[in-house]
Amino acid sequence: MGKRLKELAAALLLAGAIAAPLGAYAAEGGGGAGSATPAATTEPTATAPAKAASAELQIYRASDLAARIGVLLGDGQGVTEAYLAKRTTRLQGAILTLRLLGKEKEALAFEGQDTFADASSAGTAVRPVLAYLKQHPEMGWSGTGGGNFSPNAPITAQQVYKVMLESLSYRTGTDFAYHDTLSFAASKGLSRAAAAQPFTNRDLAAALIETLQAVPKDGTKPLSGALADRGAIAADKASLLAGSRIDLRKAADGSFYLTDGKGMTLYLFTKDMADLNSCTGACLQNWPVFGADRLLLADGLDGKDFGAFVRSDGTKQITYQGWPLYYWAKDAKPGDTTGDGVGKVWYTVKIPFFSVAIGTDPTLNINYLVDGKGMSLYYFDKDPKGASVCSGDCLVKWPAFHADQVIVPSGLSAADFGEIIRPDGAKQTTYKGYPLYYWYQDAARGDTKGQGVGDVWFLVDPAAFAETAAEKAVPDHATIEMKNYAFSASEITVKAGSTVTFVNRDDDFHNAVAVNGEFRTPLISQGESVTIQLDQPGTYEFYCEPHKTHMKGKIIVQ
Questions:
Q1: How many of the other CB atoms lie within 10 Å of CB of 483?
Q2: Which of 32, 43, 107, 287 has its CA at a distance of 20 to 30 angstroms from the CA of residue 252?
Q3: pLDDT, tens digit (0-9, with 9 covering 90-100), for 100-132
């Protein structure tokens, strides 16, 4: 076991080598990778969601944590965003392999002259490595064809995970075939950066952290613990890796959702809108809580979105944007999302997060629309479809809701949402064509104080809402008479898709012509009629062509 731990310690040191820039090797007699300064980590964060006691929670990003424990060294500026965005190269991967196999010193001291044709593109200090690899194709780095090695070309996820697996004492050709590297790595819990194309230092940080959390072959504790036992990592730094990972997983439709570090899906419960302890008893048996004292976040997730609270039974539970997170007992394997949509109250947590979500009010016994932070959304029963009649003081009390991008849970359809341009030029999101609003007296998630105000303001129940009272009052057919050289109605309002019939009562010929050219009826004589259909919302001014100086009208289509 001692020999294996020595190999693991070497693997960790080698992980630092792959993280270091090639310039560290190129400098003649200069400082190596170990001279780089790690970037500061994310400070521990505590969040106290409304209606629940606060609970301390430490939160780290993968790249911050990798820097903090010293396995990601960065460049001369440390582990910066620019450094994290850089691609990890093939030569860095080759050096990592050699160190894993205990051949790095031998390779760096190699004096053979037969090397790859493009060896000069690498730093002087590492050119012997390329000659060594040329002479030892059994190392698995035989080049890219045409006599070249392409040392500065990006490394692939498959190549990185091969190295990570070998750092856990799994061997290519014995434990797994190279072409099965990614699937074998996934079976060992290593997949966080498997889909990365190209593979960057940020992805490398993710792969390093999950490897350090993994248990080596025939081992009894995580790699970080084994290395701490040998003194390769300080115990206090190794303990940071004892946290729970939060990862992103790509769904079949291309969207992303939250999982734990093992790929098990996390869910939210719409009934938690009113009370964060809504799931109790048998509910918790089916939907176990996700709890942790320390979170290790995938890069791309914001620590400010996560918090923790203490449930009434004393259990700590993690929240995302105020929503408690759960597992679904019937999810059997990583990637399962069988809990999505259960009872129309359980949903996966999409990233980017929902701009419109669903809350549940146990008193009203309805599901209703909320924004991503859980604030209630309302409709105005006086609004016609496609327009808002709320302005001035009304808009002060009922601020317009707008989302730049509509992201909704599976219980809603993004196609039902649109937007209007208000008279002041501001945008407002609509649901099924009707504007959405907040109520100024709602102070916290779960508040529904605007429900029923004036008997014209209501929560939006997506299962029941169809149209407003104002829209119901709008006819779907109208008749306009042409009489005494005038239209009988100078202005009418109809629904989109309505028909309008013109009837001539004069003994002269008349017709109806839209100013914008949308319609033009033939001339009709006394007693004749003609019908048009207007499908597109808008305002249509029209006139009678023979008498256009005094026969004018307007049709408003909602």
A1: 13
A2: 287
A3: 455 788 999 999 999 999 999 998 989 999 999
